[in-house]
Design goal:
Layout (H helix, E strand, L loop, with lengths): L12 H29 L3 H11 L4 H8 L1 E2 L7 E5 L2 E4 L2 H22 L3 H25 L4 E2 L6 E2 L2 E2 L1 H6 L1 H13 L6 H4 L5 H12 L2 H7 L6 H31 L1 H14 L1
Antiparallel strand pairs: 1-4, 2-3, 5-6
Helix pairs in contact: 1-2, 1-4, 2-4, 4-5, 4-7, 5-7, 5-11, 7-9, 7-11, 10-11, 11-12
Length: 268
Amino acid sequence: MTDFPYRDSTVDATGQVIATVGTYLIAAVALGLVIRLAVRRRAVWPIVLIVGGTMTCLMEPLFDHLYGLWFPTQGQWHLFTVYGVSEPVWLPAAYLIIYGALAVLTVVWLQKDPSVRTVWRMYGLLVAVAMVGEIVYIQVLGVYNYQGGQSFVVLGYPLFLGFVNAMSAVMTGIVVWRLLPLLRSPGSQLGLVMLPVLAFALDAVGSGIFYLSVRHSPDPSSFWLHVTAITVALGGAGTVYLLSYLVRGADLAPAGNALASSGLRIAS
């Protein structure tokens, strides 16, 4: 397997302050809104998804190792190191927002409008958030970078990864939305905590099966890296398309409609 010689550097000191304070402020607002939703609906699933989404940050080092993301270690406000990658202190807050709060938002949107249009609207929003957000962290704040022969790079960010990172919250949201009518007790909803983790593993590793096989081969060619990078984006979008049939089923089948409306009553 290719061992990429990552180039370490000094983290941008000002960018690190902005990234840490800004990410935790946004996370605090998101957490407050989710807690308010949970209290208003007397439901535990929003809190469970927040916990699961935040916990998913433990998967970040594997993603970094596989896809070549590197956090500079010199001057870094350090949280933990796994797979040789030093993770920053603001990482859990970012995961709370992206893989926790946005998954909750997907559920809420589907409860209001259980349609395929809602699925693609949420997916498109998350693709945009992933691309713009990462470019800001890379180019403006200078708190991490991608190395090791990336494909379709714009302003330091491999754009194809935006289609992958956006899939996790949408997939989690769809599955939770469909399961809620069956999970009638608070205790049964605790099992949802693993969904963000599993969704992240599916989008990062599952969609990247061809790309990662080429990337970590003894002598990866630029041509095949670009070709297989397209399959990563297609894998993410294709999975969202497949899961959208769960919403189509709720729209078309009478039993599905009853299930969907039951879910609204239970979650409300």
